Amino acid sequence: MEAAETEAETAALEALAKVADILEPIGLQEETELPAHILAEFVMDSRKKDKLLCSQLQVVDFLQNFLVQKNTAQGLDPLASEDTSRQKAIEAKEQWKELKATYQEHMEAITSALTQALPKVEEARRKQAQLQEALQQLQAKKQMAMEKLRIAQKEWQLQQEKRLQHLAEVSAEVRERQKGTKQELDRLYQELGTLKQQAGQEQDKLQRHQTFLQLLYTLQGKLLFPGAEAEIPQKLDLPKDKPQQLTQPQKQNTRDTMGRDRDVLTAHSLLEVRACHGFLGNNNMGKDPRTDQTPAQTMVSLDCRLEQTLDSVD
C-alpha cells in the first residue's frame, strides 16, 4: 500500500509540474512569430491535455482522500503504517522469490519430464502410425475377402440354379420317358393280348385242322407219313361216335371210294399237309415259302380240300 501511495504522489507532482510549465506566460514576440493555424492547433492540443491532466489530478486527489480517510478510520500512525507496508513488501518479495524458485523447480521438472516423455511420445506416434497402417491393410484385406465371398456366393448360387434347372429338365425328360414307356408298355400289353387272342384262335384252327387230319387218317386206316401221331397234340378231343355211326355197307363203300379216289390226294397235297404240320408244330407263324401263305390261310385252304375230299368220299 505504501508503494502505491508513493507512486501516486510522484505521478501527481509530475503532473503539477507539467501544468505549471504549460501555464507560464508566452511572450508576445513568440506569439507573433507563430502562424495562426499552428497556434490554433496548439491551443486545441493544450486544452485536450489540460482536460486529461485535470481528470488525472481528480483521480489522484480522490485516491489521496480515500487513503487518508482509511488511515484515519483505522487509527494508524502514518509512520507505523509505512513501516508495516515496507515489512509487508519485504515479505511479499520473499514470497515472490520462493514462488519464483518453486516455479523454476517445477519448470525444470516439467522440462526434464518432457525431455524424457518426448521420445516415448515419438515412439507412441510411430506405433500409432504403424497400427493405423496395419489397420488400413486389414480393412483392405477384409474388403477384398468380403468381395471374394460375395462373388463366390453369387457363383455358387448360379451353379445351384443351373443344377436345379438341369435337374428339373432331367426330371421332366425322365417323366416324359416314363410316360412314353408306360404308353409303349400298355400298347405292348394290348398287342400281347391281341397276339394271345390270335394265338388262341390259331390254336383253335390248328386243333380243328388236326381233328380233320386225324379223321382223314382214321378214314384211310393208316398214317400218311411217319411221325404224324407224334405231331398231333394229345389234348385233341377227337370225335369217337362218328366212326361207330358208319354201317358195314357204308364202311365197304368208303373203302371202295377211298380206293378209287386215292389218287385224288396226290403226293403234292401230302407234302403240303406235311409242310403245314411242320410249320405249325415248330410254332413258326410266318408265311409258307412255297405257297406264300400264312399258316392260317394254309389251314383254311387245307380245310376246304379236306371237306371236298370228305364230300367225294361220302
Q: Radius of gyration in whole Å, from Cα?
A: 78 Å
Q: Give the SSE string.
A: HHHHHHHHH
Low-confidence stretches: 25-32, 223-286
Which of globular, elongated, flat, extended, rod-shaped describes the shape? rod-shaped
Strand-pairing-aware structural class = mainly alpha
- What portion of the residues fall into strands of 2 or more residues? under 5%
**In oligomeric terms, what are we looking at?**
single chain
- Please tally the helical runs, counting DSSP H or I stretches of 4 or more residues: 9
Distance between the termini: 185 Å
Q: What would the average pLDDT be, to the nearest integer? A: 71
Helical coverage, percent range: over 70%
Q: What is the count of β-strands?
A: 0
Largest sheet: none
Structure description:
The protein is rod-shaped and about 195 Å long. The protein is an all-alpha fold and 314 residues long. Helices cover 84% and strands 0% of the residues. It has a domain at 200-313. It has helices spanning 2-22, 28-33, 36-74, 78-220, 228-231, 241-245, 248-260, 267-281, 295-313. Residues 25-32 and 223-286 have low confidence and may be disordered. Helix 1 (2-22) runs antiparallel to helix 3, helix 4 (78-220) runs parallel beside helix 9 and helix 8 (267-281) crosses helix 9 (295-313). It holds the Pfam family Zwint.
